[in-house]
Amino acid sequence: MKTMLKNIYKKVPLISQKLKWKKKIKIILKKNQITKRVPNEYRNVINNFWMENANTNIRKDWHLAYSNLNGIRDERYVPEDIFYTRIEPALNRQDLVPAYTDKNNYKTFLGNYPEPTILIKNKHGKFYTNSEEKLNINEAKELLLNKEGEFFIKPSIDSGGGKAVSLIQVENKKISLKNNPISFEKLDKLYGPDYLIQKKIMQHKSLREVHPDSLNTLRITTLKLDNEIVVISTVARFGNKGESVDNQASGGVSCGVDDKGFLKKYAVDKLGSKFSVHPYTNVKFEGIKVPNYKSATELVKDLHYKLHYFNMVSWDVAVDLNAELKLLELNLQGQEINFHQFNNGPLFGEYTKKVFEMIK
Question: Where do the Alpha-L-glutamate ligase-related protein ATP-grasp domain residues begin and end (predicted)?
């Protein structure tokens, strides 16, 4: 009886999550007025592919949404519920994720990499410089107050979706958060422990012009296949409505990036609504060139070789005013897949069958 109850309790979160994904895809279909069913021919192709390669029968709603929104009819689309419950947990060591996604510890396993200018780190309530010199709270305070300009403060652990990432200003030894004065002590209490303060990156004009108020970034997803690292999809992410973060979860939009580094024709929001121009600035997406794109893909591939426990990694990369790259964040769990498939087609593309083999 106890064993049966334990098994039931284990399944409750999974059932809850599946209901959430079911509700989400219904909202996406309704928002985009997709009322037709999957054509029988396409349905049969999907069924055959998934039974042959994954030995499972899947809901076709996700295929219906993706193919209607991007015009690419393909059986290899990965539904969210399958990805988050079966694929991602098999590709990446979930028990090691918290340690490897702490932004304050990236150098421990990545070594030297192109990073933003980090002023202060708070690790478990203790203050450090970026070179790991210990500071007390007064020294950390003075270090910040003696600087002028704009800085981002963010949790070092799990700031996905732009959660709690804020822009602060320092002027005349005074700090303001969202245009309101705040003391360093209150800022520390609000964010501590485990956060960092980094200088705002002045981004390249080609990305800045799309939405000047946010740091617009690349989300590059890499996959480890045996001894090879490949880029499977890239999107550029832009803020919206004057917000300082670029995440879709915070109202931003994403646009696919082709192999040569050019933005595609349409961007999408988190529910799949399409835009040929930015909804806030009216800037056209198609044809904008991402500076130094090839170098960005080579950078993240090289870094992925250092992550031995993770086969799939999503990297957030910024391009500064001089076209130099800055790695902002790596994502190992809960990696967003919808904006990849909305913009670029099937997540794993030509590597889909290989991924199925890897997770068996």
Answer: 86-346
Please tell me the predicted confidence (pLDDT) of residue 245: 75
Within-domain flag for 82: no
Based on the domain organization, do 101 and 146 belong to the same domain? no
pLDDT tens readout for residues 288-340: 999 999 999 999 999 999 999 999 999 999 999 999 999 999 999 999 999 99
Dist. CA 30–CA 208, nearest whole Å: 33
Can you tell me the distance from the alpha carbon of 129 to that of 149, in angstroms, rounded to the nearest whole number?
18
Q: Residue 231: which of 341, 351, 71 has the closest Cα?
A: 351
Rounded to whole angstroms, what are the CA distances from 360 to 14, 55, 91, 227, 304? 20, 10, 10, 19, 22
* Closest of 223, 237, 236 to residue 352, by C-alpha: 223
Query: Which residues does the chain have with pLDDT short of 70?
Result: 1-14, 159-163, 246-250
Does residue 303 share a domain with residue 288? yes
- Indicate the number of domains in the chain: 3
Give the C-alpha distances (Å, rounded to integers) separating 152 from 30, 166, 185.
37, 6, 16
Are 161 and 275 in the same domain?
no
Is 187 a member of any domain?
Answer: yes
Chain centre distance of CA 286: 22
